[in-house]
Specification:
By secondary structure, this protein is mainly α. It contains 3 helices and 3 strands, in the order βαααββ. A 3-stranded mixed sheet has the order 1-3-2. Bound molecules: zinc ion.
Length: about 80
Amino acid sequence: MKIIRFRYVLLAFACQIVVCCCLGAALFSPWLLIPCGLALATFFWVDKRYLRCPCCGGHNGLDKLFLAKRRPFHCVHCWERIIVK
Ligand SMILES: [Zn+2]
């Protein structure tokens, strides 16, 4: 049984929100592009390291992983069952 930790899904989700907020606010203060870049880098790192399918390394959408906490979820690439908890 393959497991993806839900806290990493949440972390990636939080990074996306930070990136969106900083990008919007950067229109007024360009310094906010720095935390925006950091959040973006964190997002890609977490995504690459923790959110890939443990079997095939394929990418499943963050929204799908989010919903997978409540219902059975299969990797879109290799159809292996993945548990998100
Ligand atoms: Zn897979």
